[in-house]
Structure formats: structure tokens, C-alpha cells
């Protein structure tokens, strides 16, 4: 009886990918995916600076001014008055509203790891979420005072102060509308830093009905006057 032919052994030296084409395709796909992720996640300071230059003029290449700021906001799809721009300025530690220096730009965007429009757009929600954290909000609120005030003045002019208070407290402080009305008819033309900081503390701690307001507390006179004005306004409403 003839002996059956022995089957030749498989070539054990052949790479796994050659014997399993599906695996080879999967590995290739994974490599491309990781390559794209690396490309997205990697940060280039050179690219960041090139992006900055798109918004500056030859006369002042190291300063992004109001015109450049307008184009920058348009590119990232955010209105200049949007509160997220204040948060971005805070991350850059920008000194003057409407301007970013090259140093501030690089510092802030390196921290955020953003060197393109698309990357920054992907970070906007993260920046907005900072406002939901009590400690971050307080830091941003305090930063806003020095950021927005005229650097030639120790205090913030009232128009700027009202705009910033609307931006930061308008949607979250139930008494904001009444406080804004009070400022409109008050004698105050500026707000100093102590008043600014205490407005936030007042908005966080004092009840809408003012039941926990201590007349002997260490509140600025401005807030004492606001409480008196508000109580008088409510009394008039009750009578009418």
C-alpha cells in the first residue's frame, strides 16, 4: 500500500501579517489612526506664532490689536462680547482688553496646547466650564477688574463696570436687574476694587429677600445704599 504523501509544514518564518491579511489591514488602519491622533494632539510653538502673525500688522508684529481681535473672533466663531473671550484672556493673563501681546498669546495657547483655529474651537467648551467652578469663577471675576479698567485710572468707569457685571453676573444673580437700576440712578461714576469684589460676595451670600443682610456688616457703603434703595422700592410696590 503506497505511503500517503506528507503535507509540507507551514513556513513558520513567514510574518503573522502575511498569513493573516485581515490583521495586516487592521494594523495598518490603526497606524493611520494613531498617526492622525498624534498630528491633532501635537503642539507646535512655531505654528502658534505663525497663527498669531495672521492678526498683527507689520508696524506692530508683536501686538494683536482691536482689528486683529475682530478677525480672530470671527475665525473661531465667537462674538468679542462673549464671556468665553474673557476666560481666554484670563488663561493668557492678558493685561489690556482688546489686545493680546505675543508673549500672552504664546503663554495661554501653549497652556491650552492650541496652535490652530480648529484646536481652539475644540477647547471653547472647556473654557466655558471654568465659569461653573466657584473658585475659577472668582479668579476670573477678580481678574476682569484690572483687565477691563483704564490703566491710567485706579478705578473702573461705571459704563465699563456695568458691561462687565452684565457679562459675569447678569444670568446668575437674581438681584442683578435691580442692582443695575440702582447704579443707573446712583451718584456713583466709578467702581473701585473693594466694591467690585464685594459685589460678587454679596451676590453669592445674600438672600433675594435680604433676610440675612447684616446692616452692621463690613459691606461697602454702596451696598448698604443698594439695600436701602431696594427695600424702599419694594415698599412702594407693596403700597401701590
Describe it for me?
It contains 13 helices and 4 strands. It has helices at residues 16-19, 21-41, 45-53, 66-76, 83-92, 102-112, 117-121, 124-129, 134-148, 158-169, 176-185, 193-205, 221-239; strands spanning 63-64, 100-101, 156-157, 190-191. The longest helix has 21 residues, at 21-41. The radius of gyration is 29 Å and the shape is elongated. Helix 9 (134-148) packs antiparallel against helix 10 and helix 9 packs antiparallel against helix 12 (193-205). It has 240 residues and is mainly α.
Features:
mainly alpha; two-stranded antiparallel sheet; 13 helices
Describe the protein's topology:
Layout: H1 16-19, H2 21-41, H3 45-53, E1 63-64, H4 66-76, H5 83-92, E2 100-101, H6 102-112, H7 117-121, H8 124-129, H9 134-148, E3 156-157, H10 158-169, H11 176-185, E4 190-191, H12 193-205, H13 221-239
Antiparallel strand pairs: 1-2, 3-4
Helix pairs in contact: 3-6, 5-6, 9-10, 9-12
Side-by-side strand order of the widest sheet = 1-2
Largest sheet: 2 strands, antiparallel
Distance between the termini: 121 Å
Count of discrete alpha- or pi-helical segments spanning 4 or more residues: 13
Identify the overall geometry.
Answer: elongated
Estimated share of beta-strand residues: under 5%
Taking pLDDT < 50 over at least 5 consecutive residues as the criterion, the unreliable ranges are 1-15, 31-39
Number of strands: 4
Question: Helix coverage percent of residues?
Answer: 55-70%
Helix-strand pattern = HHHEHHEHHHHEHHEHH
The averaged pLDDT comes out at 87
Structural class: mainly alpha
Give me the Rg, rounded: 29 Å
- What is the chains' assembly state? single chain
Amino acid at each position: 500500500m503506497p505511503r500517503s504523501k506528507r503535507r509540507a509544514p507551514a513556513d513558520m518564518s513567514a510574518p503573522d501579517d502575511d498569513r493573516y491579511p485581515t490583521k495586516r489591514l487592521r494594523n495598518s488602519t490603526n497606524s493611520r489612526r494613531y498617526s492622525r491622533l498624534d498630528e491633532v494632539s501635537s503642539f507646535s510653538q512655531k505654528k502658534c506664532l505663525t497663527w498669531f502673525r495672521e492678526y498683527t500688522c507689520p508696524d506692530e508684529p508683536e501686538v494683536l490689536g482691536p482689528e486683529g481681535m475682530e478677525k480672530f473672533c470671527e475665525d473661531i466663531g465667537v462674538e468679542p462680547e462673549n464671556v468665553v473671550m474673557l476666560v481666554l484672556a484670563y488663561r493668557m493673563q492678558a493685561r489690556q482688553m482688546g489686545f493680546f501681546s505675543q508673549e500672552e498669546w504664546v503663554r495661554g495657547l501653549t497652556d491650552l496646547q492650541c496652535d490652530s483655529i480648529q484646536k481652539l474651537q475644540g477647547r471653547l467648551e472647556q473654557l466655558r466650564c471654568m465659569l461653573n467652578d466657584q473658585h475659577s469663577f472668582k479668579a476670573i471675576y477678580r481678574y476682569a477688574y484690572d483687565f477691563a479698567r483704564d490703566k491710567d485710572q485706579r478705578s473702573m468707569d461705571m459704563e465699563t463696570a456695568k458691561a462687565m457685571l452684565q457679562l459675569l453676573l447678569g444670568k446668575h444673580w437674581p438681584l442683578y436687574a435691580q442692582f443695575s437700576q440702582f447704579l443707573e440712578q446712583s451718584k456713583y461714576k466709578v467702581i473701585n476694587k473693594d466694591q467690585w469684589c464685594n459685589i460678587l460676595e454679596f451676590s453669592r451670600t445674600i438672600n433675594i429677600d435680604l433676610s440675612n443682610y447684616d446692616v452692621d456688616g463690613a459691606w461697602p457703603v454702596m451696598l448698604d445704599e443698594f439695600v436701602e434703595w431696594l427695600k424702599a422700592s419694594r415698599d412702594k410696590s407693596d403700597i401701590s
